[in-house]
Amino acid sequence: MPFLRKEGVLCADDIPLSTIAGQVGTPCYVYCWSDIAARYQELESALGSVDARIRYAVKANSNLEVLRRLVELGAGFDIVSGGELERVIRAGATPSNVVFSGVGKSHQEISFALKAGIGCLNVESVAETYRIAEIAERLTITAPVAIRVNPDIDVDTHPYIATGMRENKFGMPETDAFQLAIEIANDLPYLEFVGLACHIGSQLTEIEPYEDSLDALIELRSRLLEEGVTCAVIDIGGGFGITYADEVPFSFTDLGELLSQRLLQDIEVDVEPGRSLVGGAGVLLTRVEYLKPATRTGYLDFCIVDAAMNDLIRPALYEAFHGVEKVNNTEGRKREWNIVGPICETGDFLATARPLAIQEGDLLAIRDVGAYGFVMSSNYNSRLRPAEVVIEGDSWTVARRRESMTDLLNLEEA
Ligand code: LLP
Fold it and tell me: Strand, helix or coil at 91?
């Protein structure tokens, strides 16, 4: 457990979160490195009996300090933009350990990736495949490509992050992937067909959809083999769920067992976990500014804090639940609060109906924000984005400083 109470104060490893807030200010993201490392190692050992490669999904948390430390653990990466490629390169990653996903790769991004020596481009359409072939030929670089399959699997998650249904923009049906793989192998000399990929959604707690998608890829692989097309890699994507409230997700061990049951020895399997490695390792520290009573009976009072939807958009965007705890466990009568930010929209809430004994000035920790927290933040309402701190044991470092007014206005000043 990365965040535990010591003498009543919520700590990250050995450091009271009140110390961090006192020195760095609020709002502030805090990541507990030992938890990320433990999750990484847990996944690595669960996948021990298969030829697996971990490609951390950078979009979940792209802080350079976090990426650098993941490089040291031996992680590869899954990226979705030129910006993410630049980040992993600066973090010291070897580009051949990086896969590039996404439906809309630009000319510039494809050239950048090929010149850098990307491990694989996961293609999602015929048009994209031809574009890559053209750029590869111009650069005289052979492009390693895998085809992202859309296996039409319904998953139980928020519709915005379900990606494996036919009506979603991602991947292509097995029949189209079959034709395209044959064309790549036989007719597009600057492309090297590496394998099949899929990613059916995010925050999935059941393992059955992975069984189905894996079976779909294995079946397609066999059909391709019959045509003389070899497929060295199967990439099952990420999406492994975590506990925010009372969800009981499948474990890394369950995943490892599934892969070792289903896969033959000669296949490399790639996994692209994001949230499951970093989600639980982060909190957002925020201070209570004002307490404001509801003016209509039957409604809850407002606890107005200094973090807002621009800092953490998941509650507003997905109605996502994040636990909220007081950092100092002071006594008081609990009652239910709607915890809201200063932004001028009613959608600006971080948590609803939370029973807490709160006073003005209290420090709160919003839990499980290590994934899709800071990375989705913005400057909406011209708010300065928060600092990010990485903690390990009894030491900590500001991994990204709080933005300043100069940062805010720099790109607009002549
Ligand atoms: N691979 C691909 C191709 C993906 O599109 C994603 C996430 C992942 C891997 C990593 O998924 P994870 O293991 O983190 O679930 N903003 C949303 C989540 C969007 C996920 C997008 N794709 C949220 O806050 O829940």
Answer: coil
414 confidence band (pLDDT: 50, 70, 90):
low
Ligand 1 atom, smallest distance to 202 CA: 15
Residues 6+ apart with CB under 8 A from 299: none
Decide whether any atom of ligand 1 lies within 6 Å of the 201 Cβ: no
- C-alpha 350/C-alpha 321 separation (Å) is 8
Collapse the DSSP code of 173 into the 3-class scheme (helix H, G, I; strand E, B; otherwise coil) and give the result. coil
What 345-351 contacts at long range (C-beta under 8 Å, 24+ apart), as own/partner pairs, is 345/309, 347/309, 347/316, 348/308, 348/309, 348/316, 349/309, 349/315, 349/316, 350/286, 350/305, 350/307, 350/308, 350/309, 350/312, 350/315, 350/322, 350/324, 351/315, 351/321, 351/322, 351/324
Q: For residues 145 and 276, what is the distance between their CA atoms, to the nearest angstrom?
A: 26
* Cα-to-chain-centroid distance, residue 207: 19
Residue with tokens 């009652």: 335
What would you report as the CA-atom Rg of the chain, rounded to the nearest whole angstrom? Answer: 23
Residue 156 CA to ligand 1 center (angstroms) comes to: 14
Q: pLDDT tens, 268-316?
A: 999 999 999 999 999 999 999 999 999 999 999 999 999 999 999 999 9
Ligand 1 pocket residue status of 241, Cβ below 6 Å: no
The two tokens of residue 56 are: 């951390």
Does the CB atom of residue 202 touch ligand 1 within 6 A? Answer: yes
| Any atom of ligand 1 within 6 Å of the Cβ of 276 | yes
Q: Tell me the C-alpha distance between 368 and 268, whole Å.
A: 31
Environment class of 101 (CB within 10 Å of its CB; exposed 0-12, middle 13-18, buried 19+): buried
State if residue 164 touches ligand 1 by the CB under 6 angstroms criterion: no
Cβ within 8 Å of residue 130, ≥6 positions away: none
Residues with a catalytic annotation lie at 344
Q: What residue's CA is closest to ligand 1, atom 6?
A: 238
Q: Give φ, ψ of 230 to 5 degrees.
A: -90, 150
Quickly state the pLDDT bin for 333 (edges 50, 70, 90).
confident
- Give the residue, out of 122, 147, 275, with the most ligand 1 atoms within 8 A of its beta carbon, to mutate for a pocket test: 275
Query: What's the gap between Cα 23 and its chain centre?
Result: 28
Distance CA 216, CA 230 (A): 16
Q: What is the pLDDT of residues 249-281, one digit of tens each?
A: 999 999 999 999 987 677 999 999 999 999 999
Distance 298 CA to ligand 1 centre (A): 38
